[in-house]
Amino acid sequence: MKRCTRCVMPETWPGISFDEEGVCNICREVEKKPQIDWAERQRWLRTILQKYKEYKRSRGNKYDCLVGYSGGKDSAYTLWAAVKKYGMKPLAVTFDHGFPLPPAGEWNLMEVPKKLDCDHLRFTLGNGLRNALCRTGSEVNGDFCWHCHVGVVAYPLQIAVKYKIPLIIYGESTSEYTSYYEYGEEDDVGERKVNRMGVNLGITAEDMAGMINVDMRDLSPFVFPSQKEIRKNHIRAVHLGSFIKWDTKKQSELIRDELGWDGDDVEGVPAEYFYEKVECMLTGVRDYLKYIKRGFSRATHLTSIDVRHGRMTREKAMELVKEYEGKRPKSLDYFLKIMDMTEDEFMEIALKHVIKPHKFDKNKIKPDKELWDQHLWFVE
Known about the structure:
Helix content: 40-55%
Largest sheet: 5 strands, parallel
Number of helices: 15
Radius of gyration: 20 Å
């Protein structure tokens, strides 16, 4: 399987392409960062934020902006920056996917907004609907995270419309990890953007309601406001990563020091990435699915970022990829239980979605170790 000659991203990564030197389009996009006038971008951002701050406060609105908050490193840094760096008064909005990683993930989710004195709105699906959506997403597209991918975008946007909050602040630019957009051109909001990036796996809320045979009102959290509603309410999005040099490692250290934000061990993640995906207990299962389908998982993604930042050699990245990828996570046992699914069924579903030229070899799979606190996680 072909990999980038600079980082270690493979040809099965969505939207990837390689130039004549074998360098991927993501690396080429990140190459532009040193050429960007970040000081000018920072002034540009402050002008935008000040405009919205004055506009909302002149009309007596409590909130200057909305920040979608998962408790993970990027949204925690974004919330910190909105409050401490830019003097905004945000409403933190959480679409809870239902699998917060204890103890760190739950603590980060609930305590960080308190430390920043932010109002915080948390929405959680019932387990029955959540599990039905996970199973259907797995069967249709080989990804049980449809409810999370769509909910974290659609639900905060609904709240922005409802409370007339015209500015949504996101964290990293997608240019850090894909090349659907260039730095600075991501003001688009709504279903049009998630369609372009494939976030919704090509499945709308209306599609899903038919698949799981529920009333459309049950899936209302996943319905995007229309473009007419978005325009009427003048809703705009900004990504901090288009205005500042985004560096998850440094930012994670900052929120740990400033807020007590906590990292933890996560399945399939090298120990040095203490900050990665502590908001989800099923990261190991999702990455295992990705490995079955695409031949790589999270270590590939994380080490590629460090290679681009000059913190790691490509050779070291490949060593970590070989050490951490291709293992069956212990959390799969819990996932199979709540999905009412056998492991054979799981494998049959996953193998329907293998992306060529990857060929999955089950004989190479080894069991991953159980994490130190994993016996405490799974209480239904």
